[in-house]
Amino acid sequence: MLKMRHHSGFSLVELLVTIAVIAIVASYAVPTFRETILNNRLTTQVNEVSGILGMARSEASKLRGSVVTLCASDDSTSCSGDATWETGWIMFSDQDADRAVDAGDDQLIKVSSSLSGGNTLRILGFTSDGGNYIQFAGDGQPLPSATNNGSGTFVLCDERGASEARAVVVNVSGQVRLARDTDADGIVEAHTLDTGKTPPTPTPVSCP
Predict the structure, then answer these.
(1) pTM of the predicted model over 0.90
(2) What is the C-alpha radius of gyration for the chain, rounded to an integer number of angstroms?
(3) Mean pLDDT per 10-residue run, the chain (208 residues)?
(4) What are phi and psi of 149, to 5 degrees?
(5) Which of 61, 66, 124, 161 has its CA 20 to 30 A from that of 36?
(6) Which CATH number does 14-178 carry?
């Protein structure tokens, strides 16, 4: 006498329902996971910028009659003269403060490669010539320019724009801090500009 064998498994309807549930869950999970990746990348990069600025200030305090220069670089050996810091940047002892790595006199201290994820890094303030560099003197303070007291801001942006931008502020004494959103408009603010108002008007950062 033949015995009937019963095979367990999903029916076609059950399989379709399972696939539909997975698709719905994925539609919520994937964007959240992507946001986490973008946020973590920005956090890593802003921490790196903050650390390098602190290092530049510390290195400058060790030098006598010289400064430490930070500038954008696209070849890891010299200043590019551009304001697009996402291509990479260098830190070096700059004996004559001419923003050039002079053989025999100056020494590279730190080299940073280009940013990942297509993120941008730009600076506001510090200098009067388009945000190409920042220099720290032996007292740990950024050198002022003809139009700036030495304060400034490094701004990091990704594809989401200013609403998710991060920034590092350097004040006139050389102290470094993460930018804050003091007016609760959803965008962090750059260093304080003297607008003649008390208190000064917050200046939100912007992205390229």
Answers:
(1) no
(2) 25
(3) 55 73 68 87 96 94 87 94 92 93 93 94 78 87 79 94 96 92 92 59 87
(4) -80, 5
(5) 124
(6) 3.55.40.10
